[in-house]
Structure to design on (718 residues):
């Protein structure tokens, strides 16, 4: 068989059971019952919630304790993450810092950077954005033009990033920058900078998406001075840094749970007497969801064993995104007459965000290209 | 997986890849019983793997047999392997001795009166070729199985759309041995049957993917292999996703003695993979894959049949949903998270 298509059964360790119960008890207290829960990680943010989560030790769970982390396993983190998403908790504020920035700094950052940034991230007080895409750079990331020139004690940064989610509320943006002119090796000469979003030479301009939310932004850098100690790892190593975290980013439960709350509300709507079509739809979605979750946990197991299952992660994201996009479409056609406002609000909110599911974190087409590479086609 | 499990799987794979050629499957479809293949398998004991030696089985556990059946699905083995296992398992459950030779199972309208079995069933797999037909019977109070010799049944030869024997049988007052059980053999047959078809489909699907990828790498058009075209790559990536999900769903049945929920999930998810997978495989293969001479159709036609047998996707989806609906929406997530 092909490499990258095997998802071995991984059982969650016994110690995750008590942890799961703790998270559920916490959520029962911390969630606002008047707020409509939304299992899309990108949709709800609450500074109070992030701080409370940090207080429980559930941000930076897998990081070393010396940096404020929990020293816990990757599978324990998985359990906390999926519980938060399934409940529709407002996780967005700390999401990127927890999932991406922290692990990246641990792997590539300096000791000083880890000491400075990781503890406040774990407390739910320090938030990051990702600065990859640019107005003329999307899937073809190596074509970025934002660049920096060396100056005394650091770098002078110029250019612009776009679709920078959360830049209007976060503290920093981890920015991929060209620090050498493009050469034959397209992936060489890039570096990652930690840029202070409150710097006077940084401008953040909100962009409204079709739901009316202004979560993403264009960020402009005009002669922004970035000191040497804000360069992550070695200059020139940026591409490798960006690529190294993709398996984490693509295989998690956030890649198939975004529309989960629509299913929950749908079950409330049909109650205990669904018609056969509604009943089959519920079973169909559960069967798909359970299978996706098992595949995702399998990858979590590989990651915690130190493997880099890039093809598997791409497969999960593609299948998961397809599932979470199809879910509201299937449900609307099996809706009982006179649905409640709660049902409609949940469904409509999902509809308006669904186009982003197959774009963010790698488009469907890029993922399928990666899968094709895993199959030996390219 | 244990060493023994891998050994059984490898044995099955070797026998099937040596003997179960396209020509053999074609001749079986034309009505010829593959004596040599059955004899070789019977000598290795593979048809009765997963059944206890105490009842004349070959030993091993359910997952061993499912590994054999997955290989059988990959190679389109034209034998009642799943049915022999199902019949044997029903007999074993009743404490009976498992007879030698190919067996099948029949569900239909049967009544037992004065120790005599009467009734009829449709779509009985390989009835014409089996020596024993195990028939679940019950009147609501007692549950039993009848061990019907084929010679006591009238056989109406029929085939499914894969050309596999699916015969009608009629029984008029046959004096067949009856074994009683405290279980519900009709339900058991449905659940175990769905389990066998799920792993068989996962095997056939993995083979469909392998064939499609090989073909795309071999077939050249516009001066290069069609695998180099993005349109083809993207299609095959989708196929790979469907196959990977199917293999994972089937693995849940192989890892332990599977729960009925796992079987419902597998039959539903794998059955759903059939339409997109066979569509892509045929599209990638072009006209050659549509010919009878090409081996692709052995897999795709079987997949179209197996997804219907022992409850199709919608049937199992409704059944899977039942428990979750009873528990209510706020127990949905805990229910899902409990399925390790």
């Amino acid at each position: 068989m092909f490499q990258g298509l095997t998802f071995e059964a991984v059982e969650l360790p016994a110690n995750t059971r008590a942890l799961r119960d703790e998270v559920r008890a916490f959520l029962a207290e911390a969630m606002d019952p008047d707020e409509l829960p939304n299992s899309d990680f990108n949709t709800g943010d609450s500074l109070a919630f992030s701080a409370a989560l940090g207080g429980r030790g559930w941000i930076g769970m897998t990081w070393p304790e010396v940096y404020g982390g929990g020293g816990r396993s990757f599978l324990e983190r998985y359990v906390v993450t999926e519980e938060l998403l399934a409940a529709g908790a407002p996780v967005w504020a700390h999401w990127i810092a927890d999932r991406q920035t922290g692990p990246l700094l641990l792997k590539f950052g300096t000791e000083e950077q880890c000491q400075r940034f990781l503890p406040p991230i774990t407390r739910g007080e320090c938030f990051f954005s990702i600065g990859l895409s640019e107005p003329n750079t999307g899937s073809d990331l190596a074509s970025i033009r934002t660049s920096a020139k060396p100056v005394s004690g650091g770098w002078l940064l110029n250019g612009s990033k776009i679709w920078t989610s959360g830049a209007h509320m976060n503290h920093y943006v981890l920015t991929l920058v060209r620090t050498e002119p493009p050469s034959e090796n397209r992936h060489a000469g890039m570096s990652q900078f930690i840029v202070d979003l409150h710097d006077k030479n940084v401008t953040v301009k909100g962009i409204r998406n079709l739901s009316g939310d202004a979560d993403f932004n264009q960020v402009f850098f005009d002669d922004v001075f970035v000191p040497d100690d804000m360069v992550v790892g070695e200059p020139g190593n940026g591409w490798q840094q960006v690529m190294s975290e993709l398996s984490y980013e693509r295989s998690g439960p956030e890649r198939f749970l975004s529309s989960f709350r629509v299913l929950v509300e749908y079950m409330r709507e049909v109650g205990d007497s669904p018609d056969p079509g509604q009943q089959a739809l519920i079973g169909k979605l559960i069967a798909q969801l359970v299978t996706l979750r098992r595949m995702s946990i399998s990858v979590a197991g590989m990651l915690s064993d130190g493997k880099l299952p890039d093809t598997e992660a791409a497969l999960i994201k593609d299948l998961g995104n397809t599932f979470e996009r199809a879910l509201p479409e299937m449900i609307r056609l099996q809706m009982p007459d006179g649905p409640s406002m709660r049902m409609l609000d949940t469904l409509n909110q999902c509809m308006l965000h669904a186009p982003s599911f197959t774009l963010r974190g790698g488009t469907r087409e890029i993922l399928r290209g990666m899968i094709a590479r895993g199959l030996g086609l390219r | 997986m244990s060493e023994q499990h891998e050994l059984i799987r490898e044995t099955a794979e070797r026998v099937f890849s040596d003997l179960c050629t396209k020509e053999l499957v074609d001749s079986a479809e034309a009505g010829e019983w593959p004596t040599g293949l059955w004899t070789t398998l019977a000598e290795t004991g593979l048809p009765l793997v997963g059944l206890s030696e105490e009842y004349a089985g070959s030993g091993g556990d359910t997952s061993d047999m499912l590994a054999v059946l997955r290989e059988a699905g990959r190679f389109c083995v034209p034998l009642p392997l799943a049915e022999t296992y199902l019949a044997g398992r029903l007999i074993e459950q009743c404490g009976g001795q498992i007879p030698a030779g190919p067996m099948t199972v029949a569900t239909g309208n049967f009544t037992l009166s004065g120790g005599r079995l009467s009734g009829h069933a449709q779509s009985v797999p390989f009835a014409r070729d089996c020596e024993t037909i195990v028939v679940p019977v019950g009147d609501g109070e007692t549950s039993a199985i009848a061990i019907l010799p084929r010679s006591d049944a009238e056989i109406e030869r029929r085939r499914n759309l894969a050309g596999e024997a699916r015969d009608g049988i009629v029984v008029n007052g046959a004096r067949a041995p009856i074994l009683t059980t405290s279980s519900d053999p009709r339900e058991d047959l449905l659940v175990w049957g769905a389990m066998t078809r799920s792993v068989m489909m996962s095997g056939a699907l993995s083979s469909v993917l392998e064939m499609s990828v090989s073909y795309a790498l071999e077939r050249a058009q516009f001066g290069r292999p069609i695998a180099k075209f993005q349109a083809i790559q993207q299609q095959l990536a989708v196929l790979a996703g469907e196959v990977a999900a199917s293999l994972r769903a089937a693995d849940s049945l192989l890892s332990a003695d599977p729960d009925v929920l796992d079987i419902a999930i597998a039959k539903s998810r794998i059955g759903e993979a059939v339409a997109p997978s066979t569509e892509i495989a045929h599209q990638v293969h072009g006209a050659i894959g549509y010919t009878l001479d090409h081996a692709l159709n052995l897999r795709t036609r079987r997949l179209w049949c197996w997804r219907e047998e022992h409850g199709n996707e919608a049937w199992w989806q409704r059944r899977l949903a039942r428990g979750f609906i009873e528990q209510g929406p706020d127990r949905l997530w805990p229910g899902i998270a409990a399925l390790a």
Chain B has three domains: 1-79, 101-183, 186-337. Chain B has a mean pLDDT of 96. Chain B touches chain A through 53 residues (CB under 8 Å).
